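hey can u check if this looks right to u? its 367 residues, i copy pasted from the old doc so theres a chance i mangled smth
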Amino acid sequence: MLLVSAPILGFPEKAALAKVVDSGWLTMGDQVRAFEEAFAAVHDAVDCVAVSSCTAALHLILHGLGIGPGDEVLVPSLTFVATANAVLYVGATPVFVDIESAEVPLMSLSDAEAKCTGRTKAVILVHFAGYLADREEWQRFARVRGLHIVEDAAHAPGLKEVGTYGAAAAFSFYGNKNMTTAEGGAVIARDAQLRETIRQARGHGMTSGTHQRLNSRTPQYDVTMLGFNYRMDELRAAIGLVQLQNLQEWNEIRRILVVLYRRLIADYCSAVTVPFGKPRTSAYHIMPVLLPHDVDRQTVIDHLRTKGIQTTIHYTPVHQMTLYRQMFTEIHLPKTEDFAQRELTIPLHPQITASAIESVVVALATA
């Protein structure tokens, strides 16, 4: 089966894991700190905070910003559910915003403007499929209204622009991402005070961690804020350090494969469209295509599966999921809903060959 995504793992990752096991120290320690420094350097940031997931990263950012009950946060519905869940975690209300268009399925600035109220405190920008939102436009939007910008950069690691939009950016290292630690995430926050609040909150709000106390004169610690168990461990950090060395090369391979996909789709099945046709900075995380309105998507999925090709959907809109339908009734986002009904994600990862891409496009054309 040709998979939609696949991690690249080998001897270097095995060796890094074995080294951690042999060290006898598995919980957050030197490997985590080294990974934080290396990941920050890739993004031209002073520092970052490694955590257990991108969901944890989003939660910690909103918590660190003091967002809570009575506040509203603008979020896209075309995203993984964790984006909206994190808003609920802090007791705030997610306000769902439509996408700009099928061509640019990123949060609509005009719809965001229409949905701002006196209770709006932040906006979460999702860099869908790895394509970056327009930084200057969103910064103007937030500045005029006094809003925090939070980036959900789960799809966009390795881009130096990420983490520069506003308060902070959240990253994912889940198994299907451009680089992986199996489970894991990180926060880049340019403000030192916010960054250190997030760092302390990830470990129960404790003033020191176990590894720090090992190397200090006293085993005592204090708890000075509400915190959570959102730490990254040494095993995951060790994998991350190896993966990070290849991230830029892997992202470039993804770019080349997307260029090939676009050319072949235009040649073989021009009725299928590919979003983001105009140049835009991207980490090329996934390969979304839009089927024509008169095509049954399940038929296409089944046909590609008979050819040994996995597909998936990004995403079922969050506002249409049962939990959110029950909490927020009568929400209608026409552009998001149309996009989500026609979107199909086809395989994209650095191990795919040109011939495999051609076979995917041929299968798509004959579905």
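The two ends are 17 Å apart (CA to CA).
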